[in-house]
Amino acid sequence: MAVASLVAIVDDDESVRESLPDLLREFGCEVQAFESAEAFLASNCVEQTRALLLDIAMPRMSGPELQQELTRRGHKTPIVFITANGDETIRPRMLAEGAVECLHKPFSEAALLRALNAALTVG
Amino acid sequence: METSLASVVDELSQLRDQLDNEVAKGKRVEAALLESERESRLIVDRIPGLVATLTPAGEVEGVNNQVLEYCGRTLEELKQWGTSDTVHPEDLPRVIEVITQSMASGDPHEIEERIRRFDGAYRWFQVRGLPLRDATGRIVRWYVLLTDIDARKRAEAQLAGEKRLLEMVASSCPLTDVLTALCTFVEVISADCHCGVYLIDWSGPRFRNGAVPSLPATFNDPIDGLPVRREIGPCGQAALLKQQVIVTDLETDPLWQESAIRPLALAHGIRSHWSTPIYARDGRVLGTFAIFHREPASPTQIQQDLIAQVTHIASIAIERASSEAALKRSEAFLGEAQHLSRVGSFAWRVAKNDITWSEQLYRIFEFDPQVPVTLDLIGTRVHPEDLTLLHDMIARARSAASDFEYEHRLLMPDGSVKHLHLIAHGTKNESGEVEYIGATQDVTQRRLAEEALDKARSELAHVTRVMSLGALTASIAHEVNQPLSGIITNASTCLRMLDADPPNVDGARETAKRTIRDGNRAADVVTRLRALFSKKELTLESLDLNQAAREVIALSSSELQRNRVVLQAELADDLPPVKGDRVQLQQVILNLLRNASDAMVAVDDRPRQLMIRTERDPGERVRLTVKDAGEGFDFRTVDKLFEAFYTTKPSGMGIGLSVSRSIIESHHGRIWAEPNDGPGATFAFAIPCAVMRTV
Question: Any CB–CB contact under 8 A between B613 and chain A?
Answer without folding.
Answer: no
